Amino acid sequence: MEYIENKTFDEIKVGESAELVRTLTSNDIELFAVISGDVNPAHVDEEFAHSDFFHKIVVHGMWGGSLISTVLGTELPGPGTIYIEQSLNFKKPIGIGDTVTVRITAKEKNPLNKDITFFCSITNQKDEEVTNGTSVVRAPTTKIRRPRMELSKVTLHKPKKLYEELIKIVHNVELVKTAVIHPVDEVSLLGAIESAQANLIIPILVGPEKKIHAVADKLKIDLSPYEIISTPHSHAAAEKGVSLAREGHVKALMKGALHTDELMHAALNKVSGIRTERRMSHVFVMDVPSYPKLILVSDAAINIYPTLEDKKDIIQNAIDIAVAIGISCPKVALLSVVETVSSKIQSTLDAAALCKMADREQIKGGILDGPLAFDTIVSKDAAKIKGIVSSVAGQADVIITPDLESGNMLVKQLEYLSDAQSAGIVLGAKVPIILTSRSDTSLTRLASSALAAIMVCKNHTSRLKKR
Q1: Strand ranges of the sheet holding 82-90, from the earlier edge strand across to the other edge
Q2: pTM score
């Protein structure tokens, strides 16, 4: 066990010093901003910082001050030290990648009150002094030796990261005319209007007009800029919205305050629906704080017990959207409970067959591997321990779940236990369908709208290429 031990007032001699060396990272700056609440753009806004005095991101001056405190509290004098006074002179900025040496030197001792004055200096890797000053502390008079406490692990995660990444992709894309089906509650109407205000969609509100206006009045939303198509009830709204999509009047659908089954029943109708030759499936795009990149999960909302042929289309839909958001050759992991093929576990047989189908180019655009258990899908260490040699294991872009039950449970666990953000749409129809839940956040709805806009743009570009 590591210990932390002090030096008492009597043990410390004038001229005695202690130091620490630290290299500044972007995480240090962000964490200091989170703790202090100091969001001066010179420290956290790269675009602003490049136009500011130093032309780069620099750390808060008091970050260096906090390192001085670290040396005083943990090295010299160490535990039992009481801070009395601190003065600092800031001479040069500290930027990302700079390695600083923080040194304190005992300058004067006061035996009456056991105070010690230290000279403090911070120098960078060029031996340039960036900060100096003096500290006055009340030194401990008794020896203290304690186990060194292990600090909590901190994971920094931007709440808007998923949305911001999708918005970068959708920038300059034409607004998508979208039929919003039955937006008669606050959540669904607000989600549609916020997506419109974010320049993602042009909403056409389909549902009972009086109910829509009642909600708008409650939320104090002006509906005059938006078209409303009145229908008597949710069933009629679903049929009308699907009809608009089938006839080409809208390029996307958005679910409002009605059951998913009701909307999908209209969409899947063999005569009046918007089916294509490909099976419809839902894809979640997820930002999980503990995973280094976006990861897609399918299918967790539409296909309950998909067949092998269904899974082929589910995978192709997921690959298509992965490519659309900038993943050039998606790594697709086929989830099961083990990594070996067993006749007793259907998901392992399906995974083996799907991998061979990819080899024969029945599935295109991605790299498939499976069966893989969840640990080997997301952890390179787990894959190494189990002896799994794979270009997918530990670095998957897409997870294909065996069925809706496992998929939905996985997504909910990531959202509620790992603080993951998600956005999702249904693909395989003539237009993308934005499926939202009552518990979805505003950011989730905006990100889902952005996904739909990206897919509409991709499909339009593909059709132009075919011509």
Answers
A1: 17-23, 99-110, 115-123, 129-138, 82-90
A2: 0.83
